[in-house]
Amino acid sequence: MDAPEISVDQDVQGIATEIVRENEQSVVMMKEGSKFVPIPLDENRIQFSAALELGNLARATYFLEESRSGPDMPSMWVKLGKTAALHCEPRIALRAFAAVDDVPK
After folding, report:
1. What are the residues whose beta carbons fall under 8 Å from the beta carbon of 89, sequence distance 6 or more?
2. How much of the chain is helix, strand and coil, in % rounded to 5?
3. CA 39/CA 96 separation, integer angstroms
4. How far is CA 93 from CA 12, 81, 87, in A?
5. 38 to 4, 9, 76, 101: CA distances (angstroms)
6. What number is the average pLDDT over the span 2-9?
7. How is residue 68 annotated by DSSP?
């Protein structure tokens, strides 16, 4: 997101051949030798990014609230908070900054 020093990495072997979306799940198909191995993508992260791009901040908030905690969550909340502030959405901005303990006293 906005914190390039934080990444969500997974070691994989092989060559990525395509991205497939089935049953509301996205996977990258990796070719390892003669077999194909599906590597699942983080659906909440995809949905969060799409909601932000569309300006649907309430939906972006929902996806963050439903996501499991990870090293990139604080940067996602901050990105939502900044976007909400720019779009004059104080409730969403306050909620987002509260998630990272950055609320004015």
Report:
1. 57
2. 45, 20, 35
3. 30
4. 37, 4, 9
5. 26, 15, 26, 37
6. 49
7. P
- In this prediction the pTM is 0.69
Long-range contacts: 34-41, Cβ < 8 Å, 24+?
37/12, 39/10, 39/12
Q: Report helix, strand or coil for 50.
A: helix
3-state SS assignment for residue 40: strand
Rg (CA), the chain: 16
Tens-digit pLDDT profile for residues 17-61: 888 888 878 888 989 888 988 888 878 788 898 999 999 999 999
pLDDT-derived band at 105 (thresholds 50, 70, 90) equals very low
Residue 68: pLDDT over 80: no
